[in-house]
Amino acid sequence: MLTERQISGILRQIASQDVIEIGPEMSTGRLAALAHMVEQYGFEYGESRRTGGQNNSLVLVRMYRDPRPEARAREAATIAAYPQAGNGGAVPGMRQGSLKPLPEALEAVARMKDRIGFDVMAKAADKRQKTIAWGSCGVLALVLLIAGMPVAALAGGAALAAFLAGAFKLGEIRRQRIAQRLTDAGFVPVQDQYGRQRFLRPGQQLPGHTNPFAS
Fold first, then answer.
1. How many other CB atoms are found less than 10 A from the CB of residue 177?
2. 19 by DSSP, 3-state: which?
3. Contact in structure between 157 and 137 (CB atoms under 8 Å)
4. Phi, psi of 48 (to 5 degrees)
5. In a structure prediction context, what are the per-residue pLDDT tens digits for the chain, which is 215 residues long?
6. How far apart are CA 117 and CA 95, in angstroms?
7. Are residues 190 and 198 in contact, defined by beta-carbon separation less than 8 angstroms?
8. Under 8 Å between Cβ of 31 and 59
C-alpha cells in the first residue's frame, strides 16, 4: 500500500538521518500530514520549495532534527506509544493506514500546510523570480518584433504584463491571508538570511547551515 510505503520510508530516514526530505510526488495536504508526523519524532519543519514536474508544480519539504531536550523527549514518547509505526501499525496524529489527520491533529496539520504554502509562494515572489518573469515580457515582444509583427509584439507584451501583475497581486493577497492565520496561531515572523519572510514556532531557530533551497 502506497501510504504504508511512504510512512516506512520516512521512518527509515528518521532513524538514520538528521535532515530528511518529504515529497515531491504528493499533494500539499499529504506533505503537511507527513511533516506533522515527522515532528512527533523530534524533527522540526525547515523549508519547502517547488521542484520539477509540469510547470515546476511539485513541492519538496525539508525537515531537521531538533537538538533541544524537549524534542528528544517527544521522540522517545512517540516511539514508545507507536511501536508498530511503519509496520502496519498506528502512527502519531493519523487515522490507521492513512494520512488523514485525527481530530486532535487537524489544526496542527492545517498550519503546517500554511507554512509549506507560504514558503513556496514567498520563493515564487522573490526579486529574482520577478525579474525573470518581467524579462519574459521583453523577450516575447522582441521575438515578435524581429518576426515583423509590431502590433502582436505590443499586444502580446501588454497581455503578458497584465497577467503577471494580476498573478503577483493575487499571490500577495494569498500570502497575507496565510501570514495572518499563522500569526493568529502563535507563529513568529522572521527574515531568513536571504531576506525572505518565514514563520517559526516560538523558540525555534532557523537552520544554521546554508539553505540548499536558496537558489
1. 12
2. strand
3. yes
4. -135, 155
5. 557 888 888 999 998 999 999 987 788 899 999 999 999 999 999 988 887 655 556 889 999 999 889 999 999 999 999 999 888 888 999 988 888 999 999 999 999 999 999 988 876 655 555 555 545 566 655 665 576 666 655 665 566 666 666 666 676 788 889 999 999 999 999 888 777 888 988 877 776 543 434 43
6. 24
7. yes
8. yes
Q: Cell numbers 522540526 correspond to what residue?
A: 44
Residue 51's SS3 state is coil
Instruction: Give residue for cell 514518547.
Output: 77
Q: Give the H/E segment covering residue 59.
A: strand 59-65
Instruction: Answer for the pair 38, 82: CB distance below 8 angstroms, yes or no.
Output: no
Residue 176 contacts by C-beta under 8 Å, 6 or more apart in sequence?
Answer: none
Q: Give, rounded to a whole angstrom, the gap between the first and last alpha carbons of the chain.
A: 35
Are 109 and 32 a contacting pair, CB within 8 Å?
yes
- pTM for this model (two decimals): 0.74
8 Å CB contact between 37 and 101? no
C-alpha span between 171 and 124 (Å, rounded): 9
